[in-house]
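Subject: sequence -> C-alpha cells, single chain

Hey, anyone have a minute? Need the predicted structure for the following. Not urgent.
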Amino acid sequence: MPQPSVEAPPPDTEPDTQTAFVSMESEPVLSYEVPKSSPHILVDELGYEPGQEKKAYFFGGELPERFFITELSTGKNVYEGKLESVRYSDLYQCNIAVGEFHDLTKEGTYRISADLLGNSCDFAIGTDLYRELFREACRTYYYNRCGMTLTSELAGANAHNACHTGKAVLRRDMTAELDVTGGWHQDGSGSKDSAAAAKSLINILLSYEVFPGAFTDDTGIPESGNGIPDILDEARYETEWLLKMQDPSTGGVYSAVTVAENPDRKSTVSYVEDPGEDASYAFAAALSKFSFFYQDFDREFATLCLKAADRAWKYGVLNAGSASFENAPASEWKFPAAAEIYRASASKECESFLNGYLAEDPFKSEPPDGLPFYGCVTYLNTKQKVNTKYCGELMRSMMLRAEKISEGSRNAPFGVPATPEQNNNAELLNNMMTMTLVDHIITNHEYDTIIEDYLHYFLGRNPMSVVYVDHVGTFSYMDLNESLGLMKQFDSDAKLIFMLSRILSKDGFAG
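Reply:
Had a minute. Here:
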C-alpha cells in the first residue's frame, strides 16, 4: 500500500500510536507529468495468465519489424514475434503497432525488447496472478474502517486506533447530538457523504451479485471464518453506519457528516447535514440491495434494512417538491431505488412507479449511464413480475451503449479510448462495468477481449506505462499524484473489485 496519510485525532480520542489509515479520496486532485524514460513498449506490468490472450503495444516515430521476449531467469530470448496492425495516430503523433504472443505459456518473468524502441517493463506469466490484487482491493475498505481499532496483526502497516468516536452536532439543531460513528473513511478529514457511500456499496454488492464465486470467507478481516463471504461482512459494516444516518422520526436520511476545524484550529467538530432527496433514495437503493443478498445469512438484520429502505423511499416521495428539497431537481436515484425495493419486497408502490417511468421509454434517445444504469440491471434481473416490452427496450438501450463503447475501443490507438493526458479513468471504469454487465447477459467474445484490455490499461498498458494500483509495476501512479490510485478513490476501488471479480469468476479470461 502507498505511504498512508496522517490524520490528527479528534479531540475526544487519544493520539494514535499506530500508523494512520490510508484514506480514500472522493475527488482526486489531478496532476499529469509523463514519467521520465517511460518505455515505448507497453505491457500489463502485473502479467498474463498462461491461457490468456497476450499482446503488447509498440509506439514511436519509426518501428521495427520484429520483437523479442527474454526470460529473465535465464537471460535467453525465448520468443520472437512480428509487429502487426501498424498505423499512424494523429492523436499521439506517432506510429503504433501490436505484438501478440498468445502461445508463450511457460510461467516466469519476462521482458520484451525491440530495435529502435528498447525494452518494456518486466512482467510475469503465471496462474492466479490477480488473486492477491483482488484481495487487497477488497481489504482496502477494511483498512478504511472508521470508529474501530485496526490491529497490526490484521491490518499491518495500515493499523490505527479507533478514530472519530465522538458524537456529531445536527446542523439543523446545534443543541442536539447524534452518534454517526463507523463506516468507511471517504477522505482524510473524516467527512462522509451518504449518497457516495451508497453508490460504492451498490457497486460492491453488484460484484457479488454477478460473480459470487470470486468471493471467499478468508481474506483476513475480523469477520473471516464466520461462514459469510467477507465482502458481505464489509458491506454490513458500511450498512450499519448508513442506518445511523436515518432520522428515526421521519425516515429521511441525513446527507452527510462534515468535519470542520474549530476556530481555535486545535480541534474539530462534526456536523450532521440535513436530510436530502439523493441521500434518501440512495439509502433506499443500497439497503434494499444489501437486504436482498444478506437475507440468506441473517434474515432479521436483512429485514431491518429493508424496512429502513422502505421508510427512506416513502420520505423521498412525501417530501418531493417540499421545502426539504428546495430547488433540488428530481433525483436520479429514484429509479434504481424503486427497482431494488421492488425486487426485494414486491412493493406495489414501487411497481407502479417503475411502470409509469418505463412507459415513457426514458432511454430511447440516450442509452442508460450512471445511476439509471443500475436501475436497468436490477429490473432485468428481478424475479418479480415485469413488463417484457420494457425489458426489451432496456436491453436494446444497454446493448446500444455497449456497442458504442466497443466501437470506440476498436478504433482507439491502444485499445482503450483515452486521451494522452489520461484524465478520464472514471469514465473508463464506467465503460468497463457496462461492457461486463451486457456481456454477462448476452456473452460476446469481442466484449470479453475489450473488458480485459481495460484491466491491462490500468495495469500499465497505457501510453505513459503508469500502473494505477498498488504494489505493481515500475511506473506508479504515485509518480504523478497519490490520489490517482484506484484503491485511493472511494468509488473507483469498488469498480476495481467489480473488474477483478469478473477475472476471478468461473468464466476466467477470454482465450
